[in-house]
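[Automated response] Your request has been received and processed.

Submitted sequence:
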Amino acid sequence: MFMFNESRESGPALQAAATPCHNHEGKHLFLRSECPGAETLAQDIACLGRSGRGLFARSLAVRLQDSLACLVREEEKKVSEADGKRQEAEEMSKLYEEDNNDLMEKNEQLEAENSSLKSKCASYEGHFSRTQSSRDGDMTITIKCGIKENFPAEIKEYFMGLLWEAAGKAKANLDKESYFRKFQVLEDFMQKNVGFNPEHSEANKIAAKIENALKQDNTGRQLRSLEKCGFEIVSEQKHPKIRYHGDRRLQFSSPATPGDWRSTKNLKRELINKCLLLT
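Generated structure:
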C-alpha cells in the first residue's frame, strides 16, 4: 500500500492506496485500489505540481524497495531453512552410515565367534564320541584323503590292510613276556578285526578276476571279462586298448593274440600293480 500526504499550505491533499497490476503488455498500472476515492487518483496526481509529483514518485520507489527487500529476506530465510534441513539430512545420513558400519563389523565378529564355537562344539562331540566308544572297546579313526575312489571303500580297505599287516609284523617281532602289553593289544586287535585282512578286500577280488580274464583263449572274451573289472574298451584293432575307469593315465594295450603268454603275463602284472591298491 502506498501513501502520499501533502499539507494544505503546499498544495492539494492526496491520500490514496494503489494496488499494482499488469496489463496485457506487462506494463505497471496503478488504476485500481481497495480504498475509497481511488478512482480519482489520476485526477489528483494531475492536479499536483512538479514537486508534488516528484515527491510522490520518490515515496513510491521507497515503498517498492522496501517490499522487494522484504521479499528477498523471505526468500533468503527459505533458502537458509532449506540449507539447514539439507545439512541435518546429511548429518543423519552420515550417522546412519557410521552405525551401519559398526553393525556390519559387529556382525562379522559374531560370525567369526559362531564359527569358532561350532568348531569347538564339533571337536567336543568327536572327543565325547571317541571317549564313549573307547569305554565300550571300540575306537574311531578318521583318515582324510582327497583321491576319488574307483569303487566303494577302495581307499579305506587299503589303509585297513596296511594297518593289519603292520600289526601282524609288529606282533611277530615281539616277545610276549618282554612286551606283554604291546603283544596283548596287537593280538586282540587282529582277532577282533579280521575284516582288515587284505585277503578279504575288494581290490584283491578284482585282481583275481583280472588274472582269470587273461586266461581266456579268445581276445574278445578277455576284453569282455576285463570290462567287468572296471576297464573300458577304447579300441578293438590289432592291438586292443583298454582304460581303467576312464582314466587316460591308466590306458593299456592288449596282446594281439592270447597265445602270446609273455605279453599276457606282463599285462596282468601291469594292470594289477598300476590300477589296484594292494598291500
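Summary generated for your ticket: The two ends are 115 Å apart (CA to CA). Residues 2 and 60 are 6 Å apart (CA to CA).
If you did not submit this request, please reply to this message.
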